[in-house]
């Protein structure tokens, strides 16, 4: 027997609950879950993990030039939708690409200072 089977969806007063009529996103938001960033990070999650992991590893090792190169690669991949995008195309995720570009700028400024 599965958990929850046999439980009534009717509130104690006989009226149906408004919770049952809410969408999944509304239920998550009502529970305190921040969900809007999940689709952005979920697009191309394997490549996102590789790129962010490489950037983090190079920053920890103080190899800022390599971190900047990977951040630029992340900007290109993000701009064309390979990562952080719902579909492939030009300008698929421009805000994420801009974030990677700013990270690359910061890394290269640290290298040249």
Q: What is the averaged pLDDT score?
A: 81
The total beta strand count reads 0
Q: Name the beta content range.
A: under 5%
- For the termini, the CA-CA separation is 65 Å
Largest sheet: none
Helicity range of the residues?
55-70%
Q: What would you report as the Rg, rounded to the nearest angstrom?
A: 21 Å
Q: Rough shape?
A: elongated
Tell me the series of helices and strands, N- to C-terminal: HHHHH
Structural class: mainly alpha
> Which regions have little confidence, pLDDT < 50, spanning 5+ residues?
3-11
Which properties best describe this structure?
single chain; 113 residues; mainly alpha; 5 helices; 0% strand; elongated; disordered N terminus
What this model shows, in words?
The longest helix is centred in the C-terminal third of the chain and has 19 residues. Helix 3 runs antiparallel to helix 4 and helix 4 runs antiparallel to helix 5. The N terminus is likely disordered. This protein is mainly alpha-helical. The chain has a domain of 73 residues.
In short:
By secondary structure, the chain is mainly alpha-helical. The protein has helices at 24-30, 38-42, 45-60, 64-79, 94-112.
Set down the secondary structure blueprint:
Elements: H1 24-30, H2 38-42, H3 45-60, H4 64-79, H5 94-112
Helix pairs in contact: 3-4, 4-5
């Amino acid at each position: 027997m599965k958990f929850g089977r046999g439980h009534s969806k009717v509130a104690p007063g006989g009226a149906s609950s408004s919770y049952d009529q809410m969408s999944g996103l509304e239920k998550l938001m009502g529970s305190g879950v921040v969900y809007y960033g999940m689709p952005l990070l979920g697009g191309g999650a394997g490549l996102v993990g590789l790129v962010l992991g490489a950037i983090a590893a190079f920053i920890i090792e103080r190899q800022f030039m390599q971190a900047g190169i990977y951040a630029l690669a992340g900007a290109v991949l993000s701009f064309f939708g390979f990562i952080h995008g719902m579909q492939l195309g030009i300008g698929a995720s421009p805000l994420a690409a801009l974030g990677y570009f700013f990270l690359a700028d910061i890394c290269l400024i640290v290298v040249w200072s």
